[in-house]
Please model this.
Amino acid sequence: MNPIYNCSTRLGVSVDLPVDAHVVEASPTVPYLGCGLMLRPEAIASLLLEAGGPRAVGDDRPGIAVSDLSSELVESVVRLLRLMDRPSDVPILASGLEREILWRLINGPQGALVRQIGLADSRMSQIGHAVRSLRSHFAEPVRVEELADIACMSVTSFHRHFRSVTSLTPIQYQKQLRLHAARARLMSTTEDVTEVGFAVGYDSPSQFSREYRRMYGKPPGQDGIDLRASWAPARVSSHVV
Model:
């Protein structure tokens, strides 16, 4: 799954996913700017109750989606952002604008995805519990049976719903978490590659190197050197400014 979005679209994410994001177009004169809103389950649930109860959310949907921005949603978000210039208005107006934005989202193309966030017993919520556990313990051996128990599902049902939401199996999800964590360490430190592999849960240095190269296109040691070199000028320029 490789969603691409721009100034006329929005990205919705309903569950933590191990993804890489890349800015493909930006310049000093036209910088890349973005804003995000944390979707609070309790706020969504409150709106659903006021609207007469939740509508059916349908089948499992991926935990990430891109759709077009409506003019009404853009206007609501802009009004919320403008409160940054009027901090004294935030306690009075921010909650109402958040509700307006959530209502636009609930009734928009990603409405089913958003409604699932507000339903404590939804499949999305159940998978979310397992995902949070997996992210907290990604360096440890994973047992699908334990994750299924956390999600209150049978192993078969859990495996099917997990893949529907994340587009990955639990083992694939864990592998990506480990490799993302390894890359972050390699970029920020000169730690030995073998030690990095052990730190993120790999027992075999050769397996770590093989899977890292398959995902990022380079051996971990070389990728770490290249990453640190590519970020060094940016850090120096920022310091000088």
Notes: Residues 220-240 form the longest helix (21 residues). The chain is about 60% helix and 5% strand. The chain has three domains: 9-23+36-118, 123-169, 172-240.
